[in-house]
Fold this protein.
Amino acid sequence: MKIRAAVLEQFGKPLVVQEVDLAGPKSGEVLVKIEACGVCHTDLYTASGADPSGYCDCVLGHEGAGVVAEIGEGVTSLAVGDHVVTLFSPECGQCVNCKSGKTNICTAIREQQGRGYLPDGTARLSKNGKELRHFMGTSTFAEYTVMPEIALAKVDREAPMDKICLLACGATTGIAAALWKADVERGSTVAVFGAGMVGLGAVVGAKMKGAERIIVVDPSAKRRELALQFGATEVFAGGSNGAAEVIEATAGLGADYTFEATGRVDVMGQAVEAARLGWGKCTILGVAGRGEKLEIIPRFLITGRTVLGGSFGGAKGRTQVPLLVDMYMRGELELDGFVSHYLTLDEVNRGFDLMHKQDGIRSVITF
């Protein structure tokens, strides 16, 4: 079928919205009509060429929600008409990792997904007979996409697509990290470094868990104000002094839980340092650039701090994203305030420009 999609043809250049070919789903695959898609920093990161695993030509986009339009052979958990959230982090339930219960990092399709292909090692996207690779196994900057069944979360049909699409990446990463990965305790003190989509998600999650103090560190006055609106109790400008500000505000001890949501290794170091002496838990959520390394002073670890990684906030996509959608539908989870701009597919590059300017939180493309 012919579809319109935003193609990354060259790193550092605008995406090109054009007509491409999309083959139908094969065994274990699903054709999804995309209804809404967030413009995420990860898309910008890859388009810039900074992502060490990036590739082109490919169709970008991964923060999507849509409707099942066709199912391939062997698909049993989804049917035509089901509403789904796309998952760059699949959940097969059968691989060693999934069965362990210890991680959300499913290995079932990881190798081919990282190369830009579907599980059988081929692409469904092409243009003029030349293959276009898939991005993060999703490629949602498109009218339709083909994805593996295990990378789609079936959700409430009443949930608005333009809001729940955020749960495909950014919102879930922050919220799930606070709810489940770090498992924030009621009455605790939390410090969040970075008040973009992921950081604000961590604020929302910490508030839901009953944290007594939620400190947010971000150099942007606009984002500090947004953090207060989402539940932060205190805000600081940070810079090179971010850890010191949190430590001073906590009587020299540090925060029980810290979250890093910037992708900057210097800020990651601050988040570790700002974790409480004795039992502080630091969760790293940002993605650093090619070749960058995080330096941690061993004394911080010897004196009781723990450092965690949190891809997708540790969320198990097919199991826990539907739970987050249900929380939203019951009014327990804030998502509406995250959407600051609505765009068309043709305006996808404007979404990147708005991100560069830190204008709003999240731009959403609607189809």
